[in-house]
Amino acid sequence: MDERIRLRLDVAYDGGNFSGWAAQPDRRTVAGVLVETLDLVLGAGTATGLTVAGRTDAGVHATGQVCHLDLPTEVWREHEGRLLRRLARLLPGDVRVRAMTEVPATFDARFSATFRRYEYRVTDAPWGAEPLRRHEVLAWPRPLDCDRLSAASAGLVGEHDFAAYCRRKENATTLREVTRLDWRRDPDGILVATVQADAFCQAMVRSLVGAMLVAGDGRRPVEWPAGLLMRRERSSEVTVAPAHGLTLVAVGYPDDPAEYARRAEATRRLRVPADA
After folding, report:
1. CA 140 from chain center: how many Å?
2. Which residue among 14, 26, 39, 57 is the active-site one?
């Protein structure tokens, strides 16, 4: 068997014209475009095992997505000096591979990750989103109070069962630890929610944002989003915020590469069947 090497890819994309990350028949996806382009450059099937840190939904963007794949060592040595630029020429403009780095074979983009961090952008300007930013900023039709948004987010931090905010999968846990959830208003007036957790179940971030926004505009008490954590099934009262406001901005990994395998094993025990 040929010797193979594992590569970490740091990827950014505009999710607007993708049907999410995961490859799907007859649909344009980020994984599908990446594999197609790698096959074109390296030969069909040369790159194997493409694995992503977090499968983003249709319309969700990324500036800090991480994935890994395996290549024959001989092929990597032949192409490593120019592969990034070749991909830049051949990939469509809405997806970029920003870096390709050799990593130990124990690195798993999905299971070795210690956190995922997302940002959600909203404007409450009466004229809506600026034209050049309309694909990444949600226009909210009511004034939002940043203090109310911050108060609504406080009770959601920590380890909880987020069943009320998740699309449940069979035999999959909805227990998650949110380590950061806060709001800021940038100088341009845009409100930004930063949400970080060990992992997220499907639609969880957009559901949290949807619940906080109706507290932020005064239609719900600021205690309401945290109060939903008492429920053990998805709440029909929560409206999932639109995908285009959400961006995956960072994925964290252990500082010591020797910890990749240990982290991956611990995560598999907790998450399999995996759902985030």
Report:
1. 22
2. 57
